[in-house]
Amino acid sequence: MTEQTPDPVIERFRSTSGPVWGVVGLLLVAVVVAFALVERGDATVPLVTGALLVGALVWAAMLRPRVLAAGDDLVLRGMLDTVTVPLAAVDDVVVRQVLAVRAGERRYVSSAVGRSLRQSVRAERPGARGAAPATPTGADVTVAYADFVEDRIRQLAEDARQRAGVRRWSAEQDALAAGVRREWAWPEIAGLAGLAVALAVSLAA
After folding, report:
1. What local confidence, expressed as pLDDT, does residue 120 receive?
2. Where do the H-state alpha helices sit in the chain?
3. Given strand 10-13, what is the order of strands in its sheet?
4. How far is it, in rounded angstroms, from Cα 154 to Cα 68?
5. How far does CA 145 lie from the centroid of its chain?
6. Distances in Å between the alpha carbon of 160 and those of 55, 70, 74, 127, 180?
7. Residue 136: its pLDDT value, please?
8. What CA–CA distance (Å, rounded) separates 201 from 73?
9. Could you tell me if 151 and 94 are in contact, meaning their C-beta atoms sit under 8 angstroms apart?
10. How distant is the alpha carbon of residue 36 from its chain centre?
11. pLDDT at residue 58, as a whole number
12. Which residues contact 66 (CB under 8 A, 6 or more apart)?
């Protein structure tokens, strides 16, 4: 009997940049499309097409980006691509305005987790980490969560290196960095390109 490989454990990190405004943006797009279809006129097609293009951009920029750990991989889902980094290859991770992960000689970023510019400057001050109150509220929640993401990914990377028997900054770790994979989000790319062409055609008609 063939043994089945267990599904990898998936740990998802909450997005801090855009989900609420992304949903609001899609709702506004839906309102514009509904209004244009009810009030039919010469501008209906360009208005609907333009609204759908804006909606696709909102989805790709604000709602699609995600960060998750799946088994021994760190998955960074961006606006138009998905980058999979072996956790054991991660040299360092830092969250400023975006999440930045270094593996080998390359740096990979994700806009899904980040801080505001003011929070990033404050985080650079000596002793800033851990200074948030025990029960953080408002902006402090984002700061505390960004710290958690940094620490958690570092720990996951360390655990992955121990399982693989790889030392940090070693040649073996550099070799693992060559296994980074990038997959393009072809549905989003095709949708954006198609809507952009359709808008251009409707405006020229």
Report:
1. 60
2. 19-38, 44-58, 117-123, 139-164, 171-177, 186-204
3. 10-13, 66-70, 73-77, 81-86, 181-184
4. 13
5. 15
6. 39, 11, 11, 29, 15
7. 44
8. 43
9. no
10. 32
11. 96
12. 12, 13, 15, 75, 77, 112
For 59, the token pair is 């989805």
Tokens representing 109 are: 């970023």
> Model confidence at 27, in pLDDT bands (50, 70, 90)?
very high
Listed residue (77, 56, 59) closest to 13, CA to CA: 77
Q: How many residues does the chain have?
A: 205
**Higher per-residue confidence, 177 vs 43:** 177
- Residue 83 β-bridge partners: 76, 182
Give the contacts of 7 (CB within 8 A, at least 6 positions apart).
Answer: none
Residue with tokens 């270094």: 102
